[in-house]
Amino acid sequence: MRPYIRLLSLIKPYKKTLLLAFFCSVMYALFNAVAIWFSASFITAIFTPETNQLTAGISDQAASLNENLKVLAWQIIGGGDRFDIVMRAVMIFFLAFLFRNAFDVSQVYLITFVEQRVIKDLRDKLYRHMLSQSLGFFHRRKSGELASVTLNDVTALQEKMMKAIKFIMREPFVIVLFLFLLFTISWKLTLTILIIAPVAGLLIDVLGKSLKRKSSRMQEALSNVTALLYERLGGIRLIKTAGTEDQEIDRFEGTTTSYFRKALRQRRFDILIVPLTEIIGLAIISLILIYGGYLVFRTSTMDAEDFVRFIAIVFAILAPAKELGGAYTSVQIASAFAARIFGIMDTKEQLPTAKEPVQVDNLKKAIRLDDVSFRYSQKDDNALSHVDLNINRDETIALVGPSGAGKTTLIGLITRLFDPTQGSIKLDDVNLRDLDINGLRKLFGVVSQDIVLFNDTVAANIAYGTREIDLDRVHEVAKLAYADDFIRAMHEGYDTKIGDRGMRLSGGQQQRLSIARALVHDPPVIIFDEATSHLDSESENLIQQAMESLRENHTLIVIAHRLATVRRADRIVVLDKGTIIDQGTYDELHDRCELFTRLCQQQFLT
């Protein structure tokens, strides 16, 4: 389905508002026509020397629709001397324009309402769709590109959509009405216009298609700028410490230069269409003046009043005709933006859900992995291969191994961020695929190495995911995470805003807030994914104490390199190249597992 057809489907819920806007458009066109029609009568009254000449012969000549309309006009404004006629014509002219503008304002407001609602619905639907996708969807796309489409493309679509909707709602009716009036006055002159107009339409169509291609390339270039900006600002600490500001400035300027060139090409075509339309309109009017003058002065088949009225209507039709060209280019540009938006919305990378999912609110026995294999894409090798593992309730399990062994992938499968390529994962003997996914994920509290904090208060960050902030619970979990003391020492305590990504806090403070957040739902399973790898000794000791206090009545899954973090685990699972090569206690593995012993000797665990 073409993008602009899909856009029209988004307008359907607001059809009543659009019908009211269409009524305003019809009234606008009618009052516009009345004003133009009486303007010719006004001019005729001024330049006709005798009053009796104004209405002479009207009753006898009223045979065609044009003559009937002229009779009606003179019956309304006729009578008295020329000044009286002019006064009545001016009053009608003024009132017609007054009502025309009133209906114009009403129509624009109604269309603006629909436009804003449609854009809001589209942006909400796009965001909802993205959040419903699996984690793999985000692995294969730049976050900056997704942000650019949600913000830049939708905003650009909004600008073009307003122009297109306004044209669709009003200008066709105005053009048809004016063409009808032109035919009633002189079919010969009108036919001349209709012969020339299609040639102009073909030229505008060629330019419009080229403009669509260039608009698509421009938006892709803008996405690259946005993606680079998001990525670099996210790594500003690294840029500062590495002293690479000049290189990053050069990189950014190169990207913006590419966007500048593509935007300039797009604008060159965009600005060409409107003056081209005006030149074509001027050429048409020139031919009409010549041909109309011939009909008036040489053949006498048209009177002066009809010619003045015809020219006035032609000039009035130029504005909607100009809008026709502008609206067409708007549709082409909007189509390019919409194609990128719908391209994301058409991507389906959601995890399958059971028709009647099993509700779950606790871990009663164990999590079981049976012959589990997984790869991120068809092109990749297996990240995990034939993994069998049992994680019992209230057990502390440590996962160790070299980088790339598959530890974090295993956690992603247990929390069902991915589904295994082969094998099954069961919680209390029920396949994860059959469980309610929201209920499943509430069983887990995750503390990762890459901490995500928001530019909000301490309390809001800890309570993230809850509908209402329970301060008593927030204080309780902060104490469990050994975070309460430093929070209360801050200038506004739990109401202190911590800055973008928590940059106002130290690494240890960020990690303790992350632990508190993981505990706020009181999950039965808590996962520590290398939570102490970049901390100083004091911060690590505090987090070790927090972890130790959680062992009772919680299942802990710990990924770590440091000995102190894993030595107290009930069981240590050793992974290498996506497979489990051994598992046991620290002492058992140190005696029999060569890889584990080597890791200890290389101080990966010390």
UniProtKB/TrEMBL annotation:
The chain crosses the membrane at residues 20-47, 85-103, 167-185, 191-208, 271-297. It holds the Pfam family ABC_tran. Residues 367-602 form the ABC transporter domain. Its main location: membrane. PANTHER family: ATP-BINDING CASSETTE SUB-FAMILY B MEMBER 10, MITOCHONDRIAL (PTHR43394:SF1), ATP-DEPENDENT PERMEASE MDL1, MITOCHONDRIAL (PTHR43394). It comes from the Bacteria. Residues 19-332 form the ABC transmembrane type-1 domain. The keyword DNA repair does not apply. PROSITE patterns: ABC_TM1F, ABC_TRANSPORTER_1, ABC_TRANSPORTER_2. GO terms for molecular function: ABC-type oligopeptide transporter activity; ATP binding; ATP hydrolysis activity. This is ABC transporter ATP-binding protein. GO terms for cellular component: plasma membrane. It comes from candidate division LCP-89 bacterium B3_LCP. The keyword rRNA processing does not apply. It is a multi-pass membrane protein. It is found in: Cell membrane. Keywords: ATP-binding, Membrane, Nucleotide-binding, Transmembrane, Transmembrane helix.
